[in-house]
Amino acid sequence: MCGIVGYIGKKQAAPILLEGLKKLEYRGYDSAGIAVRSGDGEVRVVKTKGRLSVLEERTKGGTLLSGTCGIGHTRWATHGEPNEENAHPHKCTDGSVTVVHNGILENYRELREKLLASGYVFRSETDTEVIVNLIDYYRKKYGQGPVDAIARFMTRARGSYAVAVLFNEFPDEIFVARKDSPMIIGAGKGEMFVASDVPAILSHTRTVYYIDNLELARIRADGIRFYNIDRRETVKQPVTVDLDERAAEKDGYEHFMMKEICEQPRAVRDTLHAYVHGGKVEFPCPLPKDVTQLVITACGSAYHVGATLQYVIESLARLPVRVELASEFRYRDPILPKGTLVVAISQSGETADTLAAVREAKARGIRTLAIVNVLSSSIAREADDVLYTYAGPEIAVATTKAYSAQLMLGYLLAVELGRLRGTVSPEDVSRYLAALEEIPERISELLNESEEIQRFAAEHVNVHDVFMIGRGVDYTVCMEGSLKLKEISYVHTEAYAAGELKHGTISLIEDGTLVVGVITQGSVAEKTASNLEEVRSRGALVVTLGFDRMQEGAFFPIPRTLEPFAASLAVVPLQLFAYYLSVQRGLDVDKPRNLAKSVTVE
Ligand code: F6R
């Protein structure tokens, strides 16, 4: 949430900052701003409400701001409404320090009171203005320079932050610090880049330093010095990032989301082939032998993956699995007996609640395994073991290909756990892996039929309420399909376990209510079909997805696969339905209102 960029070198900073922000706009898009130090030493700030394009227009593509050092920000509001005043960068009261910030300062009220009492003046409602004034306060009070002032702020701050700071007194430097919000530095030749995510700097350099939690850095065009919170200098090695720059471009598609939906066969195949060799699942980290239960923890769509895996792992490996929302897990004093393996699933690897859940488990001496898409992200680095998904950079706010890659990796986990526990025979390993090998092709077949879904979406463009029902794995697909529809099409929809509908929710069914039934699980297929009849007889318009037609009315066939893996296919028409509905309603598919990719605040 919120994107940060910075540049120091010989080139004009503003166009580079705007270009970087464009790549990070998925992190927040309610306002944006840049600060550039001009030749006379003054730091000029321009900020605008709304999308980045407004800022680009206001600064004439950055040409109105001259200077070779600057910082920029695209915002997802936490404190204070999205307006120009609350947009970043923020200056301290006398204008000598300028800050952009990602995260939440939890004790900002108390600190604000203290700063007010010391004569500081606040122009915005943001916690960021507290940060910039606090840094200025420590700089003046102790007079020991910028690293000391930032380190003192870090000691005093509660919450999460990544900050980039300009001091008027130190015109040739950018200072950065972080805790629980991502921040990287890209090193070029005689120039340095700062960003909250790698895609922002890929067109300039692939040499990247990952700043660790509670670390800070002092960046000049020709070098970087790193410090820990005790102000002691540390040594850090750069990493060469191996990412195709085009992976983060639209590549001819109208929206990132459609591009990413279409990339699913590749994402799923790459993830499968990363871990299956010679007919065996081979993970780089051995799974603990003595595991007695799994606790899967995640948020949003990644949680839905966990919900599917609960069914799949319990069925294949006969191992108890609990799935917990990370935001609940971290605060509810969970019971984690010895032998528990906590599996954290996250595309970004930066989701605040999931990261906190990993820390909570580790603090209790419980082993943690992360399933993560973004290389070297916080969760990937902090968990005891990490298995990467190979979806590539996901830019659209609504996840699709990362979700599918997570499912694939989860199936492999189920097969391998089953093999280790003796519940999956060698013949079954072969059978399961052969079925998984076919999933990418089956997804492609579904994508080839997408016009049917497009037509269906056009017929229902004004739909108000949609219920999605299924049992077992099908129920978890409904959870994901329903979330997709809510987040990008703004349709009220609910996912229900089909058997639960008549315990209350059925009262909401009236003439014309759209009810989508997902039916891929043979043992409960007839039961869900009966539940659909119950709503049809109360006026609902029923649509089914499944291997076989079991109902009158609209039907979207799902190519056949082994039942435990059906979620990977059944979800595709639901993703497409949400996408086409959003397009036909004229909505911003890739940047839905109020949302941002990578939720780094709780
Ligand atoms: C929905 C969506 C979110 C994320 C959730 C977790 O389309 O993208 O619900 O799944 O915010 O994010 P990660 O996977 O980055 O931890």
Query: Could you give a short account of the major beta sheet?
Result: 8 strands, antiparallel
Structural class: alpha/beta
Q: How many extended strands? A: 27
What fraction strand? 15-25%
Biggest sheet strand order reads 3-2-4-1-10-9-11-15
CATH topology of the largest domain: Glutamine Phosphoribosylpyrophosphate, subunit 1, domain 1
* Spatial separation of the terminal alpha carbons: 11 Å
Structure annotation, total helices: 17
The proportion of residues forming helix, as a percent range, comes to: 25-40%
CATH superfamily of the largest domain, please?
A: Aminohydrolase, N-terminal nucleophile (Ntn) domain
State mean pLDDT (0 to 100 scale): 94
Name the bound molecules.
Answer: fructose -6-phosphate
Report the CATH architecture of the largest domain: 4-Layer Sandwich
The low-pLDDT segments are: none
Radius of gyration: 25 Å
How would you sum up the global shape?
Answer: globular
Q: How many domains, as an integer?
A: 3
